[in-house]
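Schema walkthrough. Field components (list of strings):
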Amino acid sequence: MNIQQLFSEAQQLSSPKLRDEIVHHLYQRSNQLCQEGVTYSKSKSDTKTEKLDAIFTSPFLGFPIMIVMLGLVFYITIAGANIPSTMLAEFFGWLENYLTAFFTFIHAPDWLHGVLVLGLYRGTTWVISVMLPPMAIFFPTFALLENYGYLPRVAFNMDRIFKKVGAHGKQSLTMAMGFGCNAAAVISTRIIESPRERMLAILTNNFVPCNGRWGTLIVFASLFMAANFTGGLKSLVTTGVIVGLVLFGIIVTFFVSWVLSKTALKGVPTHYTLELPPYRRPKFFDTVIRSSLTKSWAVLVRAVKVAAPAAILTWVVANIYIGDTSILMYMVQFLDPFGQMLGLDGYIMLAFILGLPANEIVLPILLMGYLSTGALTEVDSLVDLKKIFLEQGWTWVTALNMMLFSLLHYPCGTTLINIYKETKSKKWTFLAFLIPTVIAILVTFIIAQTARLLGWI
Amino acid sequence: MTNPIRVALAGNPNTGKSTLFNALTGLRQHTGNWAGKTVSLAEGKVQYKGKTYSFIDLPGTYSLFSNSTDEEVARNYIVFEKPDVTLVVLDATSLERNFNLALQVLEMTTNVIVCINLIDEAEKKGIKINERILTNKLGVPVIKLSARNKVGFDLLLDTIERIANGTIECKPTLMTYSDEIEEQIYKIEPYIRGMIGDRLSSRWVSLRLLDGDEKLLNEINKRLRLEEVKITDEYSTAIL
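Field assembly_structure (string):
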């Protein structure tokens, strides 16, 4: 007899209610153990957690509080990052003068100065100045909320909507994970039992911005969306734009889940229990230091690591000429008509294509592309950064569509690899690429055409 | 260089498993106050009194019935990779629910330490836990911990060492089910023991097969194929 036969035999012996009986016995024994070994001197209920839950998960206040919390996190990030960003940019600009002087001193050839200083150094230091301060504020603030126990309440609030669109409530948790990293979130969908609902969570995870995209969103929101405001109001408007973008991403998540659950992934949502852990006072310094140093540093290292070779590559293709046009310009010109249709341009399209390995490098590639052709020699402050974009004919629509495309477009290479590993299906991996791409193109196309038609730009 | 002592950490989500793992190994795996933070395995090594310990952080799960992939990952590690010691981390403030998982682990493997974490929080709430009574009832060491404040670590590491070197022998008290279920187990367990020997707990496998756990069946087929032949050979020689 082999084990397969034994299995069939066991199936004949047992009854369908066996699992219930097993679980019943487990609970009985657990209860018994508690009665024997545990004494409760106060009342069992945790009144603080209950009272807070009544507010945070209330049907009326739950959502407004959620949006306010999200807004607060971004407001602190944006308002706090301004000054350190400018200081960093000034510092790197000051250092660049010395680097250039050094290259002149050793009589280095022009191309070497070009590749290393104007390409590599400038590209990467810009990434550091614009991305490091917001990340160093955003991660710890978010981590404090997370460690306090607020995230499961967010999941609880979202649960009802996910059910309504035919998805699994736990998708709200994997979505929350996506705010950190989509690649990790795709693995985290393992907590969803049903394969159908897990696939929904995988296919839509990309619609929440990850670490690699926060930087891009924050930079363009503060440079373009709040240009006519000053001081505190400016940060407030920027915050509003980012919160709006995040909410839009979540709406797209619901919409795509709903469409898929009515078409390719039909089915009824399964039930599950969502545990709401007690609120715990986070270890403040531990959390702040761990998340700001470790996490910001990790993201930055990744950005610089991928950006450095990309910087050199960009500089090289921008400076090798075929005839009187550089290779970069050939690619840009080829992509430009399509980019224009979406309210973007050839450089932006190229940056997104070359940025497939990691979203962190889209912005640096774009900057390097612009810098390699522009006549701009000195960039000392964030105002100069905006000048680079304005010189390339950017408007608020370009910035908005850039942000939307970043929010909605195909997942990064790592995420796609993880999707393939988790689903073991080329078809679904391709769909995970195709669905967001089509949506990103459609949304930006509609906005660009409407804005042109109505004469807004 | 001897092999490190492998210690797996199992537990419900949000019981501070990852906090304990980080505190023990000095690693910086990200922790969070919500379910599902850890879905794959993380490993970290630490030296203690001249021995190397390798800690493996399993995904946090409510049960080990292989309902979902993370439950399977945790279950497979415990039964097939056979860590030297398995820690089951429980939340002191909701023991009644948490004991479930500990009881399931005790059916699967012998060398288990039940770690009751968040003991500081429990004491604040007026929950008193008598770990001696629980040790007696469960047949394996029960240790109270506070991973956040690093309370109870020395006792834990000593206990791990003494289990690994055989000074402490774990004799988990097995669950007894209704007469009907026990009779079914009694019928098929001998065959199972014949096929898998003492590689897995035959009582536990019997129960899982009765419950129709096909995923486990596939896993056994996949992982024990070679050994099965060998064992059947031995088995038939024994009969001859």
